[in-house]
Structures are given as structure tokens and as C-alpha cells.
Amino acid sequence: MAVIEELIRQEEDGSISFGNYLMEEKKKVLDFEVQGDLYKVKTYNEITKLEKNGKMLMEVVPGATIHKFLLTEHGAFFMVEGQEDVQLTLEMESLTEYKILIDDVNVGKVKTNMAGKVTLSVELHNNNMPYVKVEKIG
User: Fold this and answer.
1) Hey, CA dihedral for 15, 57, 1, 130, is it positive or negative?
2) Exposed, middle or buried by CB within 10 Å (0-12, 13-18, 19+), for 99?
3) Which residues are CB-neighbours of 63 under 8 A, at least 6 positions away?
4) Binning pLDDT at 50, 70 and 90, where does residue 34 land?
5) Which phi and psi angles does 93 have, rounded to 5°?
6) Peptide bond connecting 62 to the previous residue in cis, omega within 30 degrees of 0
7) What is the C-alpha to C-alpha distance for residues 119 and 41, in angstroms, rounded to an integer?
8) Side by side, which strands form the sheet with 37-44?
9) Domain map (residue ranges) of the chain
10) Predicted confidence band at 125 (pLDDT cuts at 50, 70, 90)?
């Protein structure tokens, strides 16, 4: 896979892919509609942000490309691509426990606070594109 030249797109399976970590200057797409929801993406080499209906969903530092992002009642599922290790912040359900899996390896669990934020780091090396699962426990 490669960066998303159009900055955001809907995939055939209903997921979305977004971000372009190769850009030197900030670019954004506003009001990208998927199943009645409006998404906004801002991206470049230093940061990638995704909002849904005006609410932050994900922030990635430094910038990255997120492939096949799917948010369900069970959690968030996606692949991440970038030039170096990234830190991701996801907006999930508040006061909920999640387990974090990277390429099906359980790397821990976290309980969200009132704001519902989950922060995790993902190592990117040898052009790998790890599959990240943030799954609700229980």
C-alpha cells in the first residue's frame, strides 16, 4: 500500500484510509461523507488528524498514513504506515477498558478516562505496516 494521494478515501469494505506523511506542507479535506458522517482530515509529515462530525477521532505524531480504519462498538481496527515510530491518540468510549494488539500480539490494556482517550506507540521499521486493534474488553 502507499500514501493516500487524495488524503482520504472510502475503501470497498466500508473502512476509510487517510493521511499522507510525505507532504511537507499541511493539507486538509473537509466534509468527506461516509454513511452520513462527515470526516475531516489534516495531514503532513509532522501530524495526521482525523475528525468525525466535529469530534476528534485520531491524532498521529509524526504524520502517518492510516489504512482501512474501522471504528465499531467493539473498538478501532487499522494499519499504520510511516517513516518512523508513531504515537497515536484515539478518542474511544469514556471509562472503558481496552486491550491493545499489534499484529495480533497483546501489548497491554488501558482504561480510558472521562475524555475517552487511548494513547499508544507503534514501532515502524523495515517498511512494515502493523495491524492495530484497540478492542473493548468485556
Assistant:
1) negative
2) middle
3) 19, 20, 21, 23, 43, 44, 45, 46, 47, 48, 82
4) very high
5) -70, 145
6) yes
7) 19
8) 27-34, 37-44, 47-52, 55-61, 86-91, 117-122
9) 8-136
10) confident
Tens of pLDDT, residue by residue over 63-102, are 999 999 999 999 999 999 999 999 999 999 999 999 999 9
- Identify whether the C-beta of residue 89 lies closer than 8 Å to the C-beta of residue 58: yes
- What is the C-alpha to C-alpha distance for residues 28 and 124, in angstroms, rounded to an integer? 24
Give me the count of residues in the chain: 138
**Fold of the 8-136 domain:** Chondroitinase Ac; Chain A, domain 3 (2.60.220)
Q: Is 108 left (phi over 0), alpha (psi -120 to 50) or beta?
A: left
Instruction: In whole angstroms, give the CA distance from residue 91 to residue 77.
Output: 13
